Amino acid sequence: MRALSAIVILLAGCASTGGDIQGARDSWNGAAYDDVISHWGAPQRHKTLADGAQAYTWESEGRNDVGPGYSSIAALGGSGGASMGITGALPDHGGSELVRCDRLLVFRNGRVAEQTWQGQPVFCDRFRR
Question: What is the span of the domain harbouring residue 122?
Answer without folding.
Answer: 2-127
